[in-house]
Design a protein that fits this description.
The structure is a single chain. This protein is an all-alpha fold and 101 residues long. It has one domain. It is 86% helix and 0% strand. Helix 1 packs across helix 2 and helix 1 packs antiparallel against helix 3. It is elongated and about 50 Å long.
Length: 101
């Protein structure tokens, strides 16, 4: 059983790391968007390609609200979801791994 525990613990660690990296990429993208970056800059293109799969569905979900206030709230919702997943899903995986040891 301890082998499964270490596999689950490794999965939780990787998932936590991926969520943290995604959090920082979204934060950097949001900060850079305030200064009108060059869309042909490779860093800006990377940030868009890395974060669009997360932000586009949230933009669609928030479209009625953002059309009224004209502010993109998808990064804020993404932050909340990432923190929720880190605290709940990653925490649960670590707890399951602890119980299996």
């Amino acid at each position: 059983m301890f082998i499964i525990a270490y596999i689950i613990e490794g999965l939780a660690t990787v998932l936590g790391l991926v969520l943290t990296i995604l959090y920082w990429l979204i934060l950097i993208r949001a900060l850079i968007s305030w200064v009108s970056p060059d869309p042909y800059n490779p860093i800006v293109q990377f940030l868009h390609k890395a974060t669009d799969p997360v932000l586009e569905p949230l933009r669609y979900l928030l479209m009625p609200l953002t059309m009224q206030i004209r502010i993109d709230l998808s990064p804020l919702l993404a932050f909340f979801l990432i923190v929720f997943l880190q605290r709940s899903l990653v925490g649960v995986l670590f707890h399951i791994a602890y119980l299996l040891k």
